[in-house]
Amino acid sequence: MPSHSRRRAAVALGAAALLVLGAGGLAATVGRDALASAARGGISGVDVALDGPTAAPAEAGGSTASSSGDGGDDAAASLADGRAFLLVGSDSRGDAQRPGDGDWVEGAQRSDVMMLGRVTPEGEVLVVSLPRDLWVDVPGRGPAKLNAAYSWGGPDLLVETLRQETGVRVGRFAALDFDGVVALTDAVGGVTVESPYAFTSRGVDVVAGENTLDGAEALAFLRERKSLPRGDLDRVANQQRYLLAMFDDVLSQQTLSDPRRAARVLSAAREHVAVDSGTSFGDLEAIARALGGTRPDAVVAGTVPVAGDGTEGGQSVLHVDRPAADAVWAAFRDGDADRLRELL
What is the number of H-type helices and E-type strands within the chain? Predict the structure, then answer.
């Protein structure tokens, strides 16, 4: 994939709402009415306790106000109001539940992908990934891996945990289950991703360099950690690489100019995507337009610093590098792209 394409995809990822942006971009191809109709046929709205645009950073366990999207320029402007997007990659357990399905079923889903992103008033895009094995304090539950918060209490408990851990206000939410990675990859005809390492995972051979993966192969690529030098940290990096490449294809001219291909992507999205119920399709279009004009070099992305791995209660975990992480989240909250770039 050309470097300018990677940069364009990185802009989308930077808002940590790749799925949201993909839906907004697809509206241009299949039409807003068709997109809204498809959404009513499957794309789920999730009731999540999110921070409102004028709320002060909430204390742990404090109440939050849900944002409401009414479309138009207000939605685009809200990108730079200090609140973050939360993108979750959900690994559903069997057919028990997918993102957006009714009341939360404890243990039905876990999250292997968690990214916080925001846009600064100056137009820079900031995104920080959090490893699933990060050892944190889950409100009301005690110390645990970060992905346990999502498994136990869904988006609400994950947002509360992240607010306590990072001090970041979350204003929008999007989730994709891992079956959706398979479906979206196949819908665009396969995705090419560069891997820094050669490894074999679940019978899939990945070479160092370019790999063109179908949906099932992509899932193996995204889940592998044991054969990677840094384990879960390298898996997080691979997830960033793959999502960049996949959503670059979702938003490519080949997709947007081909109604049949766009329809396949939309069909996959409505089966596997959920967004917060306060986000309307007018919002999606406005957000897509706003990010479409972001400078390619105004993107800062990385993973929260960790001090190393360890064991807690028989589990392999990653421990936060607290001073370094606090500095990262302060720069993220302040919208200080230059400082964040130095820290990551």
Answer: 13, 15
